[in-house]
């Protein structure tokens, strides 16, 4: 985990006002899984800033139709992991680029390969010597094994584990 500090200790009334303004601007992040219409939108969704504090880790693309013009053509974007299934069974990570695949091959999950920023502000947390502090914790992480992440953990459970670990670690 990588923690970044504010940089300087704020002193006096101006420092308290600045600290209060910073803590009001901070929003607790949530790791989420989203549905997406097209595989080609994945990288832009992973890169977009979200005002609700959501960090998209996994996308579920819509099924492709065998009767559309691109029904057999499958384009895999770079910058993400695309987990492919054949008749609903995992066959691994699809390589980037274009290929011809019958419709029973599908991209079931798209997992970000980018570094993700997780923000966890804590207001008025008591320390061991009973002093109240406000902390804005910033964590940068990335997913190394997308298959294990999707099939064994998932974005929602990861969010619950990360949030609990952050809350416990700050106390």
From TrEMBL:
<dbReference type="InterPro" id="IPR036013">
    <property type="entry name" value="Band_7/SPFH_dom_sf"/>
</dbReference>
<dbReference type="Pfam" id="PF01145">
    <property type="entry name" value="Band_7"/>
</dbReference>
<protein>
    <recommendedName>
        <fullName>Band 7 domain-containing protein</fullName>
    </recommendedName>
</protein>
<feature type="domain" description="Band 7">
    <location>
        <begin position="75"/>
        <end position="170"/>
    </location>
</feature>
<dbReference type="InterPro" id="IPR001107">
    <property type="entry name" value="Band_7"/>
</dbReference>
């Amino acid at each position: 985990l990588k923690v970044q500090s504010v940089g300087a200790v704020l002193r006096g009334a101006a420092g308290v006002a600045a600290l209060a303004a910073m803590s009001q601007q901070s929003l607790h992040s949530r790791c989420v899984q989203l549905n997406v219409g097209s595989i080609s939108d994945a990288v832009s969704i992973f890169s977009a800033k979200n005002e609700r504090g959501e960090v998209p880790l996994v996308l579920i693309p819509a099924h492709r139709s065998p009767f559309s013009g691109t029904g057999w053509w499958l384009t895999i974007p770079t910058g993400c992991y695309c987990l492919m299934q054949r008749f609903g069974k995992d066959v691994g990570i699809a390589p980037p680029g274009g290929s011809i695949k019958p419709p029973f091959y599908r991209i079931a999950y798209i997992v970000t390969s980018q570094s993700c920023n997780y923000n966890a502000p804590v207001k008025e947390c008591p320390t061991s010597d009973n002093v109240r502090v406000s902390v804005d914790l910033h964590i940068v992480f990335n997913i190394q094994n997308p298959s294990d992440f999707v099939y064994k953990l998932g974005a929602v459970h990861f969010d619950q584990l990360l949030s609990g670990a952050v809350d416990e670690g700050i106390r």
